[in-house]
TrEMBL record:
Zn(2+) binds at C224, C227, C246, C249. It comes from Dolichospermum compactum NIES-806. This is Lipid II isoglutaminyl synthase (glutamine-hydrolyzing) subunit MurT. Coiled coil: none annotated. It catalyses: beta-D-GlcNAc-(1->4)-Mur2Ac(oyl-L-Ala-gamma-D-O-P-Glu-L-Lys-D-Ala-D-Ala)-di-trans,octa-cis-undecaprenyl diphosphate + NH4(+) = beta-D-GlcNAc-(1->4)-Mur2Ac(oyl-L-Ala-D-isoglutaminyl-L-Lys-D-Ala-D-Ala)-di-trans,octa-cis-undecaprenyl diphosphate + phosphate + H(+); beta-D-GlcNAc-(1->4)-Mur2Ac(oyl-L-Ala-gamma-D-Glu-L-Lys-D-Ala-D-Ala)-di-trans,octa-cis-undecaprenyl diphosphate + ATP = beta-D-GlcNAc-(1->4)-Mur2Ac(oyl-L-Ala-gamma-D-O-P-Glu-L-Lys-D-Ala-D-Ala)-di-trans,octa-cis-undecaprenyl diphosphate + ADP; beta-D-GlcNAc-(1->4)-Mur2Ac(oyl-L-Ala-gamma-D-Glu-L-Lys-D-Ala-D-Ala)-di-trans,octa-cis-undecaprenyl diphosphate + L-glutamine + ATP + H2O = beta-D-GlcNAc-(1->4)-Mur2Ac(oyl-L-Ala-D-isoglutaminyl-L-Lys-D-Ala-D-Ala)-di-trans,octa-cis-undecaprenyl diphosphate + L-glutamate + ADP + phosphate + H(+). The lipid II isoglutaminyl synthase complex catalyzes the formation of alpha-D-isoglutamine in the cell wall lipid II stem peptide. The MurT subunit catalyzes the ATP-dependent amidation of D-glutamate residue of lipid II, converting it to an isoglutamine residue. One of its GO terms (molecular function) is carbon-nitrogen ligase activity on lipid II.
Length: 447
């Protein structure tokens, strides 16, 4: 299947100028070690040629694969890239996680020639859930992966229902040849997939042994998206993701294309099993055989900050991005399932994180506090996180060593000092905090 198209001469000239200017900015930023130049080049190029996303994406030979959702985009995108690249395909990918329009443009520009020629087989682009309606028309994706919808940055995005309605409206306008792959375990997305005229493949879990003991506090969509009645859950895997039916109208979970028990999981956390299944389902839809899909999964390495393991001063450090209630509850589950007793939590409230940090009160920090050990807190909102943990401690009358350190570099040093040589230091940062943590630990900036 070849989707690449020829571009008119006048468009080619403007596109070439925009790309060459963007590449010059990239060279300058990287030469001066000012960052990875993952956003600014695309911003400049879009000012010169506003249609640059369309003009570049239409040159992709086999089509654009768009990955959207609240959690798991970066890991799923990188896993799918690994599978396809190991099968000999050339991929354009926004690997730094810059998932707004300027970041998408930059990723395509990075893979284009100075004249604006893009010679890749696939473009795998993770996209912020809020801009999906804006980019579907210029990108015209061949495949859309819909991972999940959770509350995230409510100050900017609003509730999940409003996002899903916008998704449904715009996806329904795409060609019927588009393949949509939603999460069957998310009621909102399962319902979305059932309403679409396109080919729909679902992914999800069939593992009752992994049900949570009870529906957690941080849930978003436990009501039927069709009639509004409370859903009847046989069990939940995380947040509102689970096996469900509606006793009122009969709406029920869609059937996943793959049997989850038969697929391996290389990274910690049940949420990464979802990422694995999403990538495997997409690869299968592209015609990659099962043997080669499994080979890609088995040779996968974690994206930065997403269950990423580092060795610092002879001690193992694991970074678990924790940017919203559901994600943080899952990373806490990973920590509490280990025998390690030192954890560093870093809470920021910058634009990439969302300025409203009230979400930490929906996090089950009691589970982290109950196991005892040493908890170090840092970040721009260090005292908010310290207060949250102190409330958990008092409600449980638990014995923990709580250390409050506003200086991040000192907080990391303190956490390493308290981590025994045979244990792992778990670091749970928000997004901007994760970038800072990695810069301290590795000396390299990501963005």
């Amino acid at each position: 299947m070849t989707l690449g198209k020829k571009i008119k001469v006048i468009d080619r000239l403007r596109l070439g100028f925009a790309v060459s200017m963007a590449k010059s900015v990239t060279f300058l930023v990287r030469s001066l070690r000012l960052g990875a130049a993952s956003v600014l080049p695309g911003s400049i190029a879009r000012r010169i040629e506003p249609r640059i996303l369309e003009l570049l994406s239409q040159q992709v030979k086999n089509g654009v694969i768009l990955i959207a959702g609240t959690n798991g985009k970066t890991t799923t995108a990188l896993l799918l890239c690994t599978i396809l690249e190991r099968n000999g395909f050339r991929i354009a990918h926004n690997s730094t996680g810059a998932n707004l329009e300027n970041g998408l443009a930059t990723a395509l520009i990075d893979n284009a020639s100075l004249l604006g020629n893009l010679n890749v087989d696939y473009a795998i682009l993770e996209v912020d859930e809020n801009i999906v309606p804006k980019v579907l028309k210029p990108l015209k994706p061949r495949i859309i992966l819909c991972l999940n919808l959770f509350r995230d940055q409510l100050d900017r995005y609003g509730e999940v229902d409003s996002i899903s309605k916008r998704w449904t409206q715009v996806i329904a306008t795409l060609p019927e040849t588009t393949v949509v792959i939603p999460n069957a375990d998310d009621p909102t997305l399962s319902y979305l997939g059932q309403q679409l005229p396109q080919k729909v493949l679902f992914f999800g879990l069939n593992e009752p042994e992994n049900y949570l003991e009870a529906i957690p506090h941080a849930v978003d969509s436990i009501y039927c998206p069709s009639c509004g009645h409370a859903l009847d859950y046989q069990g939940v895997y995380l947040s509102h993701l689970g096996d469900f039916t509606c006793p009122s109208c009969g709406f029920t979970k869609s059937q996943p294309a793959l049997l989850s028990q038969e697929w391996p999981q290389m990274l910690v956390g049940l949420y990464n099993k979802y990422n694995t299944l999403a990538a495997a389902t997409a690869a299968q839809a592209l015609g990659v055989d099962e043997v080669n899909i499994r080979d890609g999964i088995n040779n996968f390495h974690a994206a930065f900050g997403r269950a990423e393991d580092l060795v610092i001063n002879g001690k193992r450090v694991r970074i678990l991005l924790s940017k919203n209630p559901v994600g943080t509850n899952e990373t806490i589950r990973v920590v509490t399932q280990s025998t390690d007793k030192t954890t560093l939590l870093v809470l920021n409230d910058r634009t990439p994180d969302g300025t409203d940090v009230s979400w930490i009160w929906d996090v089950d920090t009691e589970k982290l506090v109950a196991r005892g050990g040493t908890l170090i807190v840092s970040g721009d909102r260090v005292y908010d996180m310290a207060l949250r943990l102190r409330y958990s401690q008092e409600s449980l009358d638990s014995d923990i060593n709580l250390i409050v350190e506003s200086n991040l570099q000192q907080a990391i040093a303190t956490a390493l000092e308290h981590t025994p040589a045979n244990e792992t230091l778990h670091i749970l940062p928000t997004y901007s905090a994760m970038l800072e943590v990695r810069e301290v630990l590795t000396g390299r900036k990501i963005l």
